Every structure is written in structure tokens, then in C-alpha cells.
Amino acid sequence: MRKTVLKKATTMLLALVLLLSMSSITALAEELEQNDVLVTVSDAGDYDVTDDPAADNADNDDIAGGQVEHELSDQEFIEEHAAEPQTRDLQPAGRRSASDAEDAGGLDESNLVEAQIGTDGQWGLEQSRARFTQQNIPAVANVTGRLTTSNLQSQYSFSITGGTKAMYLQFLSGEHTYTLALFQFVPSANQYLFTGVQLAPSNTSTSIVNLPNGQYILAVIHNGWVGTDYNIRMNAANPAGMNRVFLSANLQTAVHSESDNSYIYINGAGYYIPSEYRRTSNISGSWGYDVMESILDQFAGFDPLGIVTYRVQNHGDSTFITSNNALVIRVGQGTSVFGHRSRRVTNSMGQVIEREFNFNDGKGQVTPRRLDWRDINDKNILIYCLDRQEFIDWAGPANLFARNRPSPTMTIVLDFDNRLRNYLG
């Protein structure tokens, strides 16, 4: 009986010791876990302590085989996953994550000339020749390309000379994560820095910015996805500050004029525009004389439409008015018209057999007057020879010299966004 009681007491003591040991092990594990130390507890009750920082980054939240892992705080989770490439369930054909590149992809920040862009982060120009392509483009350009896993950035360099220019810019792409950014070379920093101009792909919007003399780079930058085509349209040929502007839809033609229409620029080439169209003729002989004058000035609705080759027979003779490089300009209601004719014809006896003296225009309307509702259906266009820099004709029924002559022949060289065809019908 005594042995039995002693045996039971010994068993209870051993159980108490074992219970206290397990409690100590559990408390130690909890303390180590709180200090970001990985604790592994075996089935036998043994434990290992691992102070390996790599264990802190494990992303398996499960508990398996008795293993307990450190759980990341919210801030640690954000910092750890901030640089992960974006993924989507569906990818268009040919579209790849930039991380598919053999060199781990993405923008290698150690090779960038960084420039602050708003508050969203930093972008810059790739410096590793193995990761980008670069080419020079003129001030008027229409280029297409594609970013790939081996061409993570496309750079287009151009220069502005001869004073500040107005740059018109369009960026088109089916990849909405692409960005077109403009950089300018800053001599004091000896590098290209971001200008603050950035475009997301759009099929409709046109960005306008004035650029001073300097060297520039337009860079197409990815944001995790490559493999989609893009199109850049740019026109930076004309001086800035002019308030009358026409742009073709693809920006390959830009026409600027001053408010008084005295000067006009077409893709950087400047032309002086006279303030009036005036033509006179004075024909005389033994038969008498014929004096005509037709003037169009104080232009209203001044609207360049296109460039053509032009040919029309002169009034009253077999000569022709011609130009292989003529600008067609529409004028509208409010433009001033003046016409005058003085004509006298005598016979062999010196007797006057015909006489005409009036201030009518070619439509028989008394002048001076302005084009108005009576002329709304007329095609009043001025023909300006770009080579000779002068008006050579006014094709409109109110012009005295346009009466009784064949219609002009025009071959369109450059139609400003179909406006010439639409106007002439």
C-alpha cells in the first residue's frame, strides 16, 4: 500500500513538471514571436529559434506541421508589395508584363535621370542603351512604335531654334498605362530634366505648350505593361503667341496668323499677307479706253483652306494667271468690296457709240459695300502665291475681272483637313 501511494505521488509530480515545462516553452515562443523571431515547435516538444531576416518576408500565412510565422504589419505589407508588377486576369494578344524581360524588367532606377512628376512618383530617362531606343525627329513629325520587353522606353529627340515655338502634341495608344513625357536638356545640370508635360493616350485631345530654344526628348514610358503600339503626332514649327491658328487633324499642318492677318506661318515658313487685294487695268487705243478697278480689303472671316496649283484665263484676253504653289483663303461677310469701271468706245468718225461709268462690282451692286447676306452662297476665295508672296486672284462673282471668264482650274496639293474640298463642294 505504501509503495502504491509513493508511485502515484511520483507520477503526479512528473506530470506537474511536464506541464510547467510546456508552459515555459509556450511563453518563450510567444515572446520570440513578438520579437520577429521564427519559432519551430516539434511534436516531441523540442524547439528551434531562427533569427534569419528572410523568415520575416515569408508570405505563407498557414500554420503547418506546428510551424508558426511572424505576421506582417499593415505598413510592412504595403512596403513589401509596393514594387510588385501589376497583373490582370486577361491580357490582349501581344501585351506582356514588363517584368517578363530577362533583366527583370521595369525601370531600373539606378540607371535613370530622375525628375519629379507631381506627387505620384518619379520617372526619368533610361540611360542603358540595351533598354531603350532613340531617334531624332523634325519639328513636324508623325511616328509610330511599340514598347517591348527588350525596348522598355522609346526616346525621340528634337531641337527648337529661332525663338519660342508653339508645340502641338497628340499621343495615341491602345495601352492606357503608357505615358508620353517631355524632357529638356538643362546645361547647368548637364542632363535632361522633366518639363512637367505628360500625356496619357487619347484619341481626341491635343496638348499645347510653348517651348523656348533648346534640346528636348519625348519619351514613351511604360507602367508595367508593354507590347502595344503607339502613335505620336507633333508640330512645333510655328512661332508662339499668334492668336489665329488652324491645325490639321493629324497635326502635320499648322497655320498661324496674326490678328490683323498681316503675317502667316505654315509649318514654320513665314509669309507676308497684304492687307488688300487690288487689281486694275487700263486699256486704250484709237477705239477709246476701258478702265477697271476691283478691290477687296478689310478681310473678315479670313480662313486659309489649303494649297493648290492654280490656273485661270485672264478677263478679256488669252493670257493666264498661274501658280504652282498657291494658298487658298476664304473671306466672308463683312469684307469690304469696291468696284469701278469707266469705258468709252468711239467709231472711226470719233463719235461715242458706247459709254459706261459706274461704281458697281461684278454682281452689279453699288460699291463701296461689304459682303453680306446677298453673297452668302458665293465662293469668295483669295489666291495667294506663296512663291511670289502676293495675291494673284480673287475668285468670286463680285470681282469685275472674274466676269465672263472660264472657271479656274485648281489641283489640290495640301487640303487643310478637307476644308477646301468641303467649301468648294
Overall shape: it is: elongated
Question: Spans with pLDDT under 50 lasting ≥5 residues?
Answer: 31-93, 100-122
Distance between the termini: 127 Å
- Class from secondary-structure proportions: mainly beta
Q: What's the CATH first level of the largest domain?
A: Mainly Beta
Q: What is the CATH topology classification name of the largest domain? A: Jelly Rolls
Number of helices: 3
Report strand order across the widest sheet. Answer: 7-9-14-11-12
Q: Could you say what the CATH architecture of the largest domain is?
A: Sandwich
Largest sheet properties: 5 strands, mixed
Number of strands: 30
List the helices and strands and how they pair.
Elements: H1 2-34, E1 38-41, E2 47-50, E3 67-68, H2 74-81, E4 96-97, E5 112-117, E6 121-126, E7 132-136, E8 140-146, E9 153-160, E10 165-173, E11 179-186, E12 191-199, E13 207-211, E14 214-221, E15 225-226, E16 229-235, E17 244-247, E18 254-257, E19 263-266, E20 269-272, E21 276-285, E22 288-297, E23 303-313, E24 320-330, E25 336-346, E26 352-358, E27 369-370, E28 381-385, E29 390-395, E30 409-415, H3 419-424
Parallel strand pairs: 7-9
Antiparallel strand pairs: 1-2, 1-3, 4-15, 5-6, 8-16, 9-14, 10-13, 10-16, 11-12, 11-14, 17-18, 18-19, 19-20, 21-22, 22-25, 23-24, 23-30, 24-28, 25-26, 25-27, 28-29
